[in-house]
Amino acid sequence: MRKLALTLVIGLLASASGLGAVVQSTAAAVTPAPGSTYHALTPSRILDTRTGTGLSGSFGSDKARTFGVTGDGGVPLNASAVTGNLTVTGQTSLGYLYIGPVAQDNPTSSTLNFPRGDDRANAVTVALGAGGTLSITYVAPTPGPTAQVIFDVTGYFTPSSMGSVTWTLDLYDARADRWQNPDLTACTAASTESMLNTISYAGSASGFVWQPTTSYSTQESILAFEREHMTMLTSSAGTDPHGWRNALNYYGWGSLDAGVYRDSAYSSFDAAAKAAVSALATYQKPVGILARSGRHGQVITGYQVTGADPSTGSSDFSIVGVDLTDPLESVGYRDAWISFAEWRSGGSWVQFSQYLEDDSPYQDPIDGQVGNDEWYGKWVIIDPAN
């Protein structure tokens, strides 16, 4: 099982401007694996909202702000990631900071947790986003609180001449899974239960209402809901991608219109595979896969890629493989490592194949699409959009 590479070290607050003391460590951001070269720097302050360095004015809650990194503090334009100390001060409420390559108003993970009015910091290693930038979000329990944020860069990574940078992630949590059995029509319902459990155990999903469970009765309730909110003929068993998407949004965020998950169709395997990995990397949520020509639902929770970090929005990466879970007990895949070649053209229980079902003739009230027209002959995923 390939786990998200983390730097978990104790962060020290910068002593300048009266800040001091050792603070607790929390979850850090994605770290490039071996294949990139690290360059240490004399610590340099590239963000201080108190003085207008990098960004001016305090952070408000739930609003991502982006600042430039490359070309400042000794970080060159070809840097792919940086190390540094992230500090919060003057916060008017407890909460947490998220730092990452992509701006997220509702991040699903935290980098630095803190109480009200207590200066805290954490050492982080984080990939850079498009244009050599980073984004930070302050998340508080209610609207209105503010916080001052500081970032001191201490080093950077560049691609090594020895090989490509490798990026890995796996959200899998064994507590999340349930087999669909004995209901052999409930692959998407069991997958919904597992996906929402995974998100719950990861923590910090904004607006999330799901409570973890692996009960069979909950699975059957989800399946009934999917069948009530699908665009498929009721004479067919199971549900279609619209029903699966609707169940994730309703059970996870309390509304059919939540828009957290969507159904997406692509004209090639390569495009769909990269979109699935990019969504997983960017939003840190599992991705549903329509397998066996659209007759079966599976889930990916992890990946390994080389090249660009997929969480930055770049598609300039190559997939090495993915971590796949199948809800059918006889298949037995839980967090199984599937190589890219196997995923493209392996056996029928591994291969991500074209959607060839033609029993969804009705228009979807959410996206206005007719399933048959939207999916047939394409590669279909159920992916997070935020």
Description:
It is a single chain. The chain has 2 domains: 16-163, Jelly Rolls; 168-384, Alpha-Beta Complex (Cathepsin B, Chain A). The chain has helices spanning 187-202, 216-228, 241-253, 269-283, 340-345, 371-375, and strands spanning 36-48, 59-60, 65-68, 81-89, 95-100, 112-114, 120-127, 133-139, 146-159, 166-170, 261-266, 287-291, 296-307, 317-325, 336-339, 379-384. Strands 10, 11, 12, 13, 14, 15 and 16 form a 7-stranded antiparallel sheet that branches. Strands 1, 2, 4, 7 and 9 form a 5-stranded antiparallel sheet that branches. Helix 1 (187-202) runs parallel beside helix 3 (241-253) and helix 2 crosses helix 3 (241-253). Mean pLDDT is 88; it is low at 1-33. It is an alpha+beta fold and 386 residues long.
Summary keywords:
single chain, 386 residues, alpha+beta, Jelly Rolls, Cathepsin B, Chain A, 2 domains, seven-stranded antiparallel sheet, five-stranded antiparallel sheet, 29% strand, disordered N terminus
In short:
The protein has 386 residues and is of the alpha+beta class. The chain folds into 2 domains: 16-163, Jelly Rolls; 168-384, Alpha-Beta Complex (Cathepsin B, Chain A). The protein has helices at 187-202, 216-228, 241-253, 269-283, 340-345, 371-375, and strands spanning 36-48, 59-60, 65-68, 81-89, 95-100, 112-114, 120-127, 133-139, 146-159, 166-170, 261-266, 287-291, 296-307, 317-325, 336-339, 379-384.
